[in-house]
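Dear all,

This email documents one entry for the complex benchmark we are building for the journal club exercise. For each entry we list the sequence lines for every component of the assembly. Then comes the predicted three-dimensional structure of the complex as a token string, followed by one or two observations. Please use this as the template for your own entries, and keep the labels exactly as they appear.
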Amino acid sequence: MKPFRDTWLIFQRQTLLILRNPVWLIIGVLQPLYFLLLFGPLLKDALPVSNAAEAYRIFVPGLLVMLAMFGAMFTGFGLIAELRAGVIERSRVTPISRIALMLGRALRDVATLLVQALLITLLAIPFGLTVHIGNLLLAFLMLGLIGVMMSAASNALALKLKTEDALAPFMNGLAQPLLLLSGILLPLTGWLATVAKFNPFAWAVDASRALFAGNAGDPKVWQSLLILGVLTVAALMWAGRSFARGVR
Amino acid sequence: MIETKGLRKSFKSRQGRETKTVEAVRGVDLFVQPGEIFGFLGPNGAGKTTTLRMLATLIEPDDGEATVAGADLRKDPGEVRRRIGYVAQGGTTWDEVSAREELVLHARMYGISKVEAQRRAVRALDAFQLTEYADRKCKTYSGGQRRRVDIALGIIHEPKVLFLDEPTTGLDPQSRAHMWDEIRRLRAEGITIFVTTHYLEEADALCDRMAIMDHGLIVAEGTPAELKREISGDVVTVGLNGSTPKVAELFDTEPYIKKLETVDDGLRLYVDEGATVIPLILRKLDGAGIALGSIELHRPSLDDVFLEKTGRSLRES
């Protein structure tokens, strides 16, 4: 019970801070919004589709995966600020559950990105996006897993590197290839498609597209959920250990 | 209240390709009594903060044993956490929330219910004279106010022991004096206080007992008075107008003089306790009909103790 209560406690505080200063929530939604408005229109001609609505049906599910990736990927920067303010150390001398310190923050990231994802989904409907509600929930579950995984990994890295100067190049160096090799912007072909088989986000994009196309039974869906589930658990264990840092 | 035996911690530090092991704490034995203010002094890099962080469960010792507030540090750090408070050096509050919000959250991190946490926050705000600013964001507070919030957070769960890491660093003299009063008030409430400091006058004024740490070891432990007595006693400086050598002969045979130095315009007499021998000195001079220019009593300061124990003055370290 205690880890749940403690997680809720941290989640409440973190959410309060976002609501008090929602500028990052808005900035987070701007990037996919730009892609939706300024990149989406190009896809009708670049993809083998007959009309714009069809192009958006392929593009937006990938865009949501991108939102989940990037939304939580940079959460470590906030943690470094908290480390510097002494807030983390203050928490660590209390008997609060170590995993809760991390999970509460990860859930804040998930809540944020689901709000953003919902917003993008609603905005994309006028462009021709269609989706079944059950499939949407399944897609959002997948986005949530990506969020927890990225948030946990980002926090674990932040605790290891401890400065923005070290974290920023690392994250950027990781983000670009992961994005380009995910097939979000354009379909991957040739050797790039082969390399992308090792990118969990490429699986997530395929699964997301399958769900928005109404094919919940596509094997990509359960495969992607399985891959992300395993990676999420691994990231949680890593980050949980970093928060405890050798102390029980 | 705190007892340690052979506490050790070393860190690996990488310089270029070489990995060096730095022994930060090399076997610390400490004994802190219930209800006292225990001062922990030492130059930068002496291992003070590492020791403190070990006792506060933030880092795990490599070796040694410790009991903190009746709980075994190594076997049951969770119980130690419940019984201690810890206030880090650089501050512990978040800019965008208020003192009240911080206090309530912090209390709840100890498993205290929301209602009780709110009640305690009200009490703490009152005790630390923060009620007026309770609902303003922490970033609007002065250094002294923010430090008081830190301390209030450290004791919100009513700990038996409170660890304070340099609580007055960066405060102006008035806020510092205020902080000393707060710390004394906490002692009066029965909390044992373990405080590190850079300021010798602070240790002297505030601490019941203290320890000096250097190069990872405790080099001296005792009350400030004991430590000063250990040094060399007091120095009485007698100012004279000429005829110094003759007067020096006068004191040569006196049993209470440990050592005598002639200086330009007088004498330096090393004695055990200045207060008791000054009348004797005066009587002697008077009896010999010698006119006294001045007389001064210099008691060894903690800085003298520090100098003797660590080979350097705390001010230069």
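Observations: The interface with chain A takes residues 56-60, 77-78, 81-82, 84-86, 88, 90-97, 101, 105-106, 108-111, 153, 157 of chain B (CB under 8 Å). Chain B has eleven helices and 14 strands.
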